[in-house]
Amino acid sequence: MTPAAPAGQTARRPTYRHGDLRRALLDAGIALVREGGPPALVLREATRRAGVVPNAAYRHFAGRQALLDAVRIVALDQLALAMEQQMAVAAQVAEPADRARALLRAVGVAYVGFAESQPGLFRTAFSGTAAPAAPVTEPVDLPANGRDPLALLGSALDAMVAA
User: Per-residue pLDDT tens for 48-101?
Assistant: First the structure.
């Protein structure tokens, strides 16, 4: 039951009412996997954190696996972003052979650093299949760098072969 509002005002509900519910559920899912990896993602808990009834999630995600797939895409994107940041520094090395080694090292440093700093997201990034079980129909709404960690590793290895 909501508390009574002062005269002339409507009572304010303590639950989620307006805005981007898909994003709120995705944020809740990200928080859950940060805390405990893929097993920690429970749809009912994500909806509770978003302030909605459990059935509301099904307007945006077919079920737990669909939310986990969307969170996994975010985790892979964040790992790729960390790799790209390290690689941008390594790309400044002038000598091609040294640059190639620096790029490969940057990929490894970012990979290990992400695993240590974000263990729940890291485990989620590599959980399940290589691609989501069902296509994600909604945008993830995070910086889309257009690359994935495997492609970045491949480009670093290509630079090693070329050098």
Answer: 999 999 898 899 999 999 999 999 999 999 999 999 999 999 999 999 999 999
Terminal CA-CA length for the chain: 69
Q: Using an 8 Å Cβ cutoff, are 152 and 83 in contact?
A: yes
Which two structure tokens, joined as six digits, stand for 62? 């077919």
Give phi and psi for 90, each to the nearest 5.
-65, -30
| Single-letter amino acid, residue 89 | V
Nearest-CA neighbor of 20 among 58, 64, 50, 53?
50
User: Which pTM value belongs to this model?
Assistant: 0.78
Residue 106's region, left for phi above 0, alpha for psi from -120 to 50, else beta, is alpha
Torsion angle, CA of 97/112/89/100, rounded to 10 degrees? 10
Chain Cα centroid distance, residue 3: 37
Q: Does residue 16 contact residue 46 with C-beta atoms inside 8 Å?
A: no
Distance CA 57, CA 54 (A): 6
* 3-state class (DSSP) for residue 47: helix
In 3-state terms the chain splits into helix, strand, coil percentages (rounded to 5) of 65, 0, 35
